[in-house]
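Aim 2 progress update. The chain analyzed this quarter is reproduced below.
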Amino acid sequence: MEIDQLKYRPQVFWVPFVSLLVIWLIYYLDWRYFFQFNNFGIVPRTFKGLRGVLFSPFLHGSIQHLWNNTLALAVLLPLICYYYYKNWQTLVFGGIVLSGIGTWLIAKTGTHIGASGLIYVLTAYMFFTGIRSKQYRLMAISFLMIVLYGGSVWYMLPDVEEGISWQGHLAGFISGFLLSYMLKRPQFEPEYKYDWQHPDYDETKDDFIKQFDAKGNFNPLPLLRKDAQGYIYNDTFHRKNNINHQSYTINENTLHK
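Predicted C-alpha cells:
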C-alpha cells in the first residue's frame, strides 16, 4: 500500500493565491475598461456557449458575487492541496470542465458565470471522500464541510434565490460526487505510539519477545553481564547463590560453544 506524506507543500499557498489573483484581476479589468467578459459565460446548449466551460469560473457579475466565491476558494483550495495533494490538478481543472459541461446540459436559458460550480465540486469531493476513507483526518474535513457549507445544499434547488445559477451548483455537486469515486483516495501513515505498531517492525530483535519460547510460554533469558576483564557471567545465578562474580567467571568464547 502506498503511503502519502501529510506535509506542507508550496501548492498550499500559491495555488489559491494565483487563482484568486487571476479572478480579481479579470474583474478589475472588466470593470475598468468595460471589456464585457461576462459574454464569455456558459450559454446552455449552444456551440458558442461551450467556451464558457473554461472561462466562466473566472467571471463574476458583482463585487459581492466575487467576494463570496473568494472566501470559499480561500478555504477549499488550501485544504485540497494539503490533504489531496496528488489529486488537486484533476479536481481543479477536471472539476471546472465537468461542472461546466453539466451546467451547459442542465440549464436552459441565461448566461452562467462564476466559480460556484468549482466550489461545489471541491465541497462535495471532500465530503464524500472523507466519509468513505474512514480516516479520522479526512473525516474531520468532511465534518468541516458540513459546518461551513451544509446550508449551501439548498442553492442546488430551483427558485431558491433569484439570479443564482442553481444548475451550476447542482452540476458541480454531482461532479464532485463522481470524482470522489473515480479518484484514488490518499492513505496516510497512522501515528504510532509504540515501536511494535510499525508495519516493518522486526519482532526477532525485540528483547521482550525473546523471553517467550516457540509455544508462547514465558521463559526469561538469564541476565548476562560483562566485567572489566571481558568475561561474561550470569548475574541472576550469582545473586541467587550469593557468589562473588570475581571468583566465578565464564569465558565469553566458552559461553557461546
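The two ends are 44 Å apart (CA to CA). The chain has nine helices and two strands. These observations will guide the mutagenesis experiments scheduled for the next reporting period.
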